[in-house]
Design brief:
Elements (H helix, E strand, L loop, with lengths): L2 E9 L10 E10 L2 E9 L8 H7 L3 H4 L5 H12 L3 E4 L2 H14 L9 E3 H8 L8 H7 L10 H21 L2 H10 L7 H14 L17 E4 L2 E4 L22 H9 L4 H5 L7 H16 L2 E6 L5 H16 L3 E5 L2 H18 L6 E3 L9 H9 L7 H14 L16 H8 L18 H11 L2 E5 H9 L10 E4 L5 H8 L2 E4 H10 L7 H12 L4 H36 L1 E2 L5 E5 L10 H25 L10 H28 L6 E8 L7 E7 L3 H10 L3 E6 L9 H7 L9 E6 L5 H4 E6 L11 H18 L3 E4 L3 H15 L7 E4 L7 H10 L3 E5 L16 E4 L10 H12 L4 H18 L10 E5 L3 H4 L3 H6 L5 E5 L1 H4 L3 H6 L7
Parallel strand pairs: 1-4, 4-5, 8-18, 8-19, 9-11, 9-12, 10-11, 12-18, 20-25, 20-26, 21-23, 21-24, 22-23, 24-25
Antiparallel strand pairs: 1-2, 2-3, 6-7, 13-17, 14-15, 15-16, 16-17
Length: about 950
């Protein structure tokens, strides 16, 4: 496989057998690892090129009018292909056009080797976010000037292939051999390539005298039990907990700040474009003083304040001075990574002392090497190609990762099934008895977490630590909570309980007595080690098999009953594709009493089955130490029994004996054929769970966000966190405005003649929203984000806008969340990559979307973001407030909506040079008594209200005004 031809075809469509034709060929020859020749030509397809193909490729009918026919150019192309392997990015697409062209020209079909660089990339680049050619080229710094033109695509694919070949050649022999066993059923001939690499490596093995070869890289790998891991660096010692305190510590905080931020400070040198900001420095002083005085601090810092630096710098200096560990909690794992790789890295270069930092995530984010070893040792026969691919990805990943953190992996959806099988967990851990213990990713992360000076976690783990009575995180006295407005939601979710019909079926699969399952493998290993127990085991297995089948039947009956009850009553709330129904045990009366009866029988069956599995496990002789394979499976099965018991307790909690402190609901999938039911329960009062174990016990917590106040007051957020239960002197607040000039940069328009927000079935209201959105998009030339509170509304508006914008003189591209993709990052990336594009989003788009510059010029808020009144958590908490004599709308619904509204509006002006228009299509913001709560909570935009025909004329002139950078 030393001679290859990398090929790319541009075509009129995707179906050669339905008449689609090639319009451009690009080909690059590779011989012995070097590019030796290239070939490209346009081709007259004998038909018109569809407009969408012209938009994608830039190839017009005029360009191919005088181009040669396929018949004329094919002989030259085939001379290049003769005796070579065929390589392409998504090879099946190009191969079908090649085979159809060969047949139409009277040639035999191509029967040489085929390599697909998508397949190869997925295996060898397991940490890539995307496997599209353009994004791979960008990430790997491969020149790719004209994406979707065959000559440029072929050259970029050739460079990509050479990069992948280089990775393959550097992989250890044991990984190459393991990969070979997995790829035998792949569509392309990767197995042949791997065999060739294996032979080269075997020839180059070190001589018996130990002389190293030119490719010997044993210092890079830790090969153990037939798996190759990337060698880890020696452990660094912590720096803040040193026995001596250096000279910088004796300085006053203001002087230390000046040393870092002043004209001659490190920050100016290390951070290009760094400018001192009064608000940022005010926050730095407030954070340091709160930690010094043992007070909690709430800081609302407007966009552009630079709050990450404003809390990290004083926090690290205080921790250094007091030889304490600083814990920082963020809302998401993505923010966790950003803090660690960006802000922390900058500070490590800018501070006059050294410090160490690390991230820690929930245990289920880390790979268990013992379980993975078991998974790759399983026979490959019978497992799907996707599952083999994921195992292949993980084998390569082990040679690249230091952390073993699943967030690094770019797995297909089926990979989640394997991850459930190989992730680290408490119930199936051998601890120090595990042969992988010294290499365990989770325990190494825990060890790093204990030793470092700054530990970055996410809210989920932060709350889980409270729940586990501080047994997860190292002991800490000070912590910073960023994106603090999410802390209550994180507490609601992680102090609550969840279970689903899918989880139950997955547990049943794990506990099945099928040949490839853990129980059958355990029985086989046990009998092989101790033939004396054969008879005992042989009588137990058929009985377990019978019980397993009966239990699966009960579980399916239970699922069907639950789904029928829930789907009849569920309504859409906020989540895409999910419908929700609140319930109490009393809901299951009359003919629905059967749900509880079947649940009881299911629990009885599960309890009996678990007892019988345990009895099988107890046949293991206690007087002798079992071999590793038996111990490993024994641990997994005892772990399974723990998970099984937990499921039984949850079934009892959800459907037999409810707790008055929780609100209960079910969710069903509304847009798929899957009959799944998700059961959830949330604490009605989260504040009590935060006030005592967190705020009363810790020295100082800094809670910060761009949205903590409602009408300039912190009262709502204090009550949600239970901070109003503490002495006043222990809680401080600080509100810092954004440094942006909103009066000049932003315009907020509120049409006064729009109909009041109604249901989607209200034609007048829906028509006004659709036309309003179309008007904004045309005036802004695309570049518009439209925020909805309901997915069904988004779908209706999306469809109607698509039809109306199709008649516009210029083409517009719409991207709808839940329509074009469910992946927010992908949709934002596509939105930024296309001219005249429009992005329609719901709940998750109201925050965390950061699109600077002219990519985003207009923001439409369709209606005020009140929580759906039918959402169970809102209903339960509203009832509680009403029972306490409070107004649920004013105490809960309105403050929540105002904070969400502030987040939504905050998507627009992200930089001091940005300029944009916000359009609020909900007239309640000016007509209702509570409307001013929304407007008074916003930065000082220019605000105009009036008839829509007048207001829409303001958009284009405002956006085309001289930008701040030019004025």
């Amino acid at each position: 496989m030393n001679r290859l031809l990398v090929v790319d075809f541009e075509t009129t469509g995707s179906h050669p057998r339905q008449g689609d034709s090639i319009i451009q060929i690009g080909a690059v020859a590779i011989d012995d690892g070097q590019i030796t020749e290239s070939f490209s030509t346009l081709i007259h397809p004998g038909q018109d090129i569809p407009p969408f193909i012209t938009q994608l490729t830039g190839i017009t009918n005029e360009m191919v009018a005088d181009a040669p026919s396929l018949e004329e150019v094919f002989p030259d192309f085939l001379r290049l292909l003769d005796g070579r392997a065929f390589v392409a990015h998504n090879a099946s697409f190009d191969l079908q056009f090649l085979q159809e062209a060969l047949l139409s020209q009277g040639y035999y079909a191509f029967d040489g080797y085929v390599l697909d660089t998508v397949e190869l990339s997925r295996v060898l680049l397991p940490m890539q976010n995307s496997y599209r050619l353009g994004e791979l080229a960008s990430e790997l710094e491969i020149e790719h000037d004209n994406p979707h033109q065959a000559d440029s695509d072929a050259l970029a694919t050739a460079q990509l292939f050479l990069h992948l070949l280089d990775i393959l050649k550097r992989l250890p022999l044991v990984t190459i051999q393991r990969l070979q066993m997995l790829v035998s059923s792949f569509r392309s001939d990767i197995e042949v390539l791997l065999r060739q690499i294996e032979m080269e490596k075997l020839i180059e093995l070190p001589e018996l005298d130990g002389t190293p070869t030119k490719t010997d890289s044993s210092d890079m790998w830790d090969v153990y039990r037939q798996l190759a891991l990337r060698k880890r660096e020696e452990k660094l010692t912590a720096s803040l907990k040193r026995s001596h305190v250096d000279a910088t510590v004796t300085k006053a905080f203001a002087d230390q700040l000046e040393d870092v931020l002043g004209e001659n400070g490190h920050m100016q040198a290390k951070m290009s474009g760094y400018q001192r900001r009064d608000a940022q420095e005010a926050m730095m002083h407030a954070v340091y003083e709160a930690m010094e005085d043992g007070a909690h601090l709430l800081v609302e810092a407007g966009t552009g304040t630079g709050k990450s630096l404003a809390y990290l710098l004083p926090g690290i200096i205080w921790a250094h001075h007091n030889q304490q560990q600083l814990v920082v909690s963020t809302n998401t794992i993505q923010l966790q990574e950003q803090l660690f790789h960006k802000e922390i890295a900058t500070l490590q270069e800018s501070l006059p002392f050294s410090f160490t930092a690390s991230t820690l995530k929930g245990r289920g984010n880390y790979l268990c090497l013992r379980k993975f070893e078991q998974a790759v040792d399983e026979p490959v026969e019978g497992s799907s190609q996707e599952m083999r691919l994921v195992k292949g990805q993980m084998l390569t990943w082990l040679t690249q990762t230091v952390t073993g953190d699943v967030e690094e992996l770019s797995m297909p959806p089926s990979g989640q099934l394997l991850w459930q099988q190989v992730k680290s967990d408490t119930s199936s851990c051998l601890n120090r008895a595990c042969p992988w213990f010294s290499r365990c990713y989770y325990f190494q992360a825990k060890e790093r977490a204990r030793d470092v000076d700054v530990l970055i976690v996410n809210h989920a783990l932060f709350i889980s630590d409270l729940q586990a009575e501080n047994r997860i995180l190292p002991p800490y006295e000070v912590a910073i909570v960023d994106e603090a407005h999410h802390l209550e939601d994180a507490a609601t979710q992680h102090l609550g309980k969840q279970f689903s019909t899918t989880q139950l079926l997955f547990l049943l699969d794990r506990a099945s007595v099928e040949e490839s399952g853990a129980i059958a493998r355990f029985a086989e290993e046990l009998q092989s080690w101790m033939p004396a127990v054969q008879e005992d085991v042989a009588t137990k297995l058929p009985e377990l098999r019978k019980q397993s089948a009966a239990l699966r039947e009960k579980a399916q009956q239970w699922t069907q009953l639950l789904y029928a009850w829930a789907s009849d009553r569920a309504e859409e709330t906020a989540d895409a594709g999910r419908e929700t129904v609140r319930y109490r045990i009393e809901s299951f009366v009359g003919k629905h009493e059967k749900i509880r009866k079947v649940t009881k029988k299911l629990i009885e069956g599960m309890t009996a089955y678990a007892a019988d599995i345990e009895q099988l496990l107890r046949t293991t002789p206690q007087e002798e130490k079992p071999p590793f394979a038996v111990r490993s499976l024994l641990t997994d099965l005892f772990g399974l029994i723990k998970d099984w018991q937990n499921a039984v307790e949850l079934l009892h909690f959800f459907l037999l004996e409810q707790d008055a402190e929780y609100v209960y609901w079910m969710e069903v999938e509304s847009r798929t054929a899957r009959k799944q039911v998700h059961l959830s329960a949330a604490l009605l009062k989260v504040a009590d769970s935060l006030a005592e174990p967190l705020f009363a016990q810790k020295r100082s917590l800094i809670l910060t966000s761009a949205t903590l106040t409602v009408k300039d007051s912190f009262s709502y957020i204090k009550s949600q966190f239970g901070l109003d239960q503490l002495p006043e002197e222990r809680v401080r607040t600080l509100s810092l405005p954004s440094p942006f000039h909103y009066e000049e940069q932003g315009l907020l328009l509120i049409p006064s003649d729009f109909p009041a927000p109604g249901k989607e079935s209200d034609h007048t209201y829906l028509e006004a929203v659709i036309q309003g959105c179309v008007d904004v998009v045309l005036a802004s030339k695309g570049r518009t984000l439209i925020l909805f509170t309901s997915h069904s509304m988004l779908r209706l508006v999306y469809q109607a806008m698509k039809e109306r914008l199709a008649e516009a003189p210029e083409p517009y591209t719409l991207f709808g969340h839940g329509i074009d993709s469910n992946n927010r990052s992908k949709l934002v990336r596509l939105f930024r990559s296309m001219e005249r594009s429009v992005l329609l989003g719901t709940s998750s788009f109201w925050e965390g979307v950061d699109i600077q510059g002219e990519w985003l010029s207009s923001l439409v808020i369709v209606r005020l973001p009140f929580a759906p009144p039918n959402h169970p958590v809102y209903q339960g908490r509203a009832e509680l407030l009403k029972a306490e004599g409070k107004n649920a709308f004013m105490s809960l619904s309105l403050p929540q909506a105002v904070l969400q509204f502030k987040q939504g509006v905050g998507r627009l002006i992200r930089h001091h040079l940005d300029r944009g228009v916000v359009i609020v299509l909900d007239t309640r913001v000016v007509e209702s008594r509570y409307g001013r709560s929304f407007l008074q909570s916003l930065p000082p935009f220019q605000i105009e209200s009036g008839p829509w025909p007048t207001l829409r004329e303001r958009i284009e002139p405002f956006l085309s005004m001289q930008s701040l950078s030019d004025s």
